[in-house]
């Protein structure tokens, strides 16, 4: 999948999403929360996050939140630590492509990430994006 394909999917399938960009990174903002994005696409390393080695040509990472119980079922066994960066030192290769992983910094908040997802993997995570969006909508009301 390309960044453009993912961007088009999100903007076409989730109502009222606002797209912001900074330094080549994309932030998909839900109308009920202008501080925390619904999803992001990072296109390069920065001083806060370089674990996915995104400075490689053509590499990017999709990041988004999933349901707490789904997150626990997939990644809860990896660490019992709480707080930011709790998944940084559990042996995960965050440079691995086309694999759903806990987010290196925000995993403790049920965020996940995937470097360069294939169409097949992206199709399999659409339900997580939809569930996350529906949760945001419910919490707004």
TrEMBL record:
It comes from Ulvibacter litoralis. This is DUF6194 domain-containing protein. Residues 1-138 form the DUF6194 domain. InterPro entries: DUF6194. It holds the Pfam family DUF6194.
């Amino acid at each position: 999948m390309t960044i453009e394909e993912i961007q088009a999917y999100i903007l076409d399938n989730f109502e009222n999403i606002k797209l912001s960009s900074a330094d080549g990174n994309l932030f998909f903002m839900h109308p009920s929360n202008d501080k925390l994005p619904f999803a992001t696409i990072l296109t390069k390393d920065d001083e806060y996050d370089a674990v996915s080695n995104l400075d490689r040509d053509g590499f990017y990472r999709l990041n988004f939140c999933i349901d707490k119980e789904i997150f626990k079922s997939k990644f809860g066994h990896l660490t019992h630590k709480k707080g930011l960066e709790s998944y940084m030192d559990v042996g995960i290769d965050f440079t691995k492509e086309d694999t759903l992983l806990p987010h290196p910094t925000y995993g403790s908040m049920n965020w996940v990430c995937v470097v360069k997802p294939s169409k097949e993997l992206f199709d399999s995570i659409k339900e997580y994006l939809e569930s996350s969006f529906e949760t945001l909508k419910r919490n707004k009301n």
